[in-house]
Design brief:
23% helix
Length: 345
């Protein structure tokens, strides 16, 4: 099966080209991809040829945030939405170890694949292509009232919701700081609202994301390049920027007995961390990795909050992918950048 796709070959070496992929298996469903959202991991693969410990070793089709229409159902598929149904794609297809029941948090266990990832070899080819074959368990029907363009936010919103729920019992009535107001930070604000946070402050170092944080519901948004945040006594800090300095600042911003949720992907190298501050102030640190089964709830949140579509600031055609990636790297003027790969029906 040949398809036009966004393919990364190594550092600073990616382009739109025709790419040969295996034909769909009889137990798979073929999707006509409509929209794909550009994520930070896609930007890392395109710029430096790796994402964390995973390095491109063969041509890799990028993309794991995708929505499209069911195009063809394999003859061995027992249950799938009808042809023409608009679906969001869960990028993971995890598998349990042979002879063992599936663990609760399957996304944390070895095995399975993740769209657009170099974590396995052969790599798992991603969703920035005209057609995508997936297993039926990866399909999530987009509910009525969710515009196709908004549905592409279901995957990153799931990531935000999963992270927030790492400290779910702490959120109702809490004063929360969201550090970094890019797309994942803004979606974290939305997730915090659904979980009952009482007051949400958001920070960034650029004016554009600060204004975006206000748009999606932050009670206060501060450009910390110009203004001091003020007293650091938050019940919970959600760190979304993924920078070493922001991580260290989060430790100082949370109150004694509070919690930090690390949503942003930190650098792979060792970080000097004042562990004593975590210990003597009894701060709880929650790591967060991808997501598990939050996508259906994320789609429902999108149906109830159409204003979240404002996070999408730029839409490019597939043929404009190089320009789209350039825009997505500039957080001074963009938030979520998406590719339009097909036509809405």
């Amino acid at each position: 099966m040949k398809t036009n796709a966004v393919v990364a070959h190594g550092p600073q070496n990616f382009r739109v080209e025709e790419f040969e992929l295996p034909d769909p298996e009889l137990d798979q469903v073929l999707i006509d991809v409509l929209y794909g959202g550009i994520c930070g991991s896609d930007l890392h693969y395109a710029k430096v040829g790796e994402n964390g410990p995973y390095r491109i070793q063969e041509p890799l089709v990028l993309g794991h945030e995708a929505v499209g229409y069911v195009s063809q159902i394999g003859t061995a598929v027992d249950d799938a939405p009808p042809v023409g149904t608009l679906v969001a794609i869960h990028p993971a297809d995890p598998v349990a170890k042979a002879g063992e029941p599936a663990p609760k948090n399957l996304h944390l266990h070895q095995g399975g694949t993740y769209l657009g990832s170099a974590a396995s070899l052969p790599h798992t080819q991603g969703a920035f292509r005209e057609q995508l074959a997936v297993n039926p368990n990866q399909l999530r029907v987009v509910p009525p009232g969710v515009r196709p363009k908004s549905a592409v936010l279901a995957e990153p919103l799931s990531v935000a919701m999963h992270g927030i729920d790492r400290a779910r019992e702490r959120i109702p009535g809490a004063r929360v700081l969201v550090s970094g107001s890019g797309p994942i930070g803004c979606l974290a604000i939305a997730a915090l609202r659904t979980r009952g946070a009482a007051y949400i402050s958001a920070t960034d170092i650029y004016p554009f994301p600060v204004e975006m944080a206000k748009t999606v519901g932050a009670d206060r948004a501060v450009n910390i390049a110009k203004t001091e945040l003020g007293p650091a006594d938050f019940d919970v800090v959600v760190e979304c920027s993924g920078t070493a300095q922001a991580f260290l600042s989060a430790i100082d911003a949370v109150r004694p007995g509070g919690a930090i949720i690390q949503l942003g992907i930190l650098p792979g190298e060792k970080l000097p961390t004042p562990i004593f501050k975590l210990l003597n102030r009894e701060i709880t640190f929650h790591g967060s990795h991808r997501f598990d089964n939050e996508m259906e709830e994320a789609l429902n949140v999108l149906s109830q909050h159409p204003e979240l579509e404002s996070i999408i600031t730029n839409v490019y055609r597939l043929t404009e992918a190089v320009e789209a990636f350039s825009t997505a790297t500039d957080s001074t003027k963009s938030s979520k950048v998406i590719l339009q790969i097909g036509e809405e029906r």
